[in-house]
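Tutorial, part two.
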Amino acid sequence: MIEVLGRSVDCVESGEGPPLVFLPGSYSTPAAWRPVQRLLAPRWRMVATSLAGYGASAETRSRQDFGIQHEVGLVRGLLRHVGEPVHLVGHSFGATVALATALAGRDAVASLTLFEANPLALLGQGHARLYDDTLRMSLDFEAAVDAGEIDAPRRIIDFWGGEGVFAAMPEAVKAYCRATAATNVLDWRTDFAFTASANEYSQLDLPILLVRGALANPAMVAITGELAAALPQVRTAVVEGAGHFLITSHAADCAQLLSSFLAEVA
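Running the prediction step on this input gives:
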């Protein structure tokens, strides 16, 4: 753990070499990246964190103040700790935060690798039905959390991963999701309020690997398509047989894609 402007920030480090910084998604901690990290060549300084409200990272948001700058400040503090430009790797909401971090300051980021990035505002650019359906689902989830529905996280996990994914998770993982459901409510508010446009993404002139699962839900397919069209130096990949939680279910494929990309750009 490190301290950034008086707040605690998760920081798990291993290895030596050029820095890779890993951002997990909602309901996750640095442990989410271990299956991928174990398969990478031992030539990297690997640094992983948790987003606000997860793991050892302090929550600074509230339902009145939930802008993406809270997450960007956390990540930029971590990058200052690393001390040199990093290859930033994110999954799901963590990939969205990675995009926001690069938009806020390109100097500290050498490349981006984004697994199932979900900047939801892009659904509003030609995908109104998907946007409305996703917003309605998130509002129903928030109401369920407020009403004390014990398995409210199932609504989110199964939305991204498919029916039955939450039920199949280990009990310890389900318990952590239940314990951090209120934090995930803030994640959804933060994501919907992050309104970067395709034009802004077109200014991100750095190498980017954009990956989704072949079984991604329609909202993710649409978002990935919008990002692929906007980003100027993008490589895209689809992991066959994988859904939203591909960094766990298909860790070997994800590690191979990341390794091949870094061999080109690092």
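The chain is about 45% helix and 15% strand. In part three we will examine how such features are distributed along the chain.
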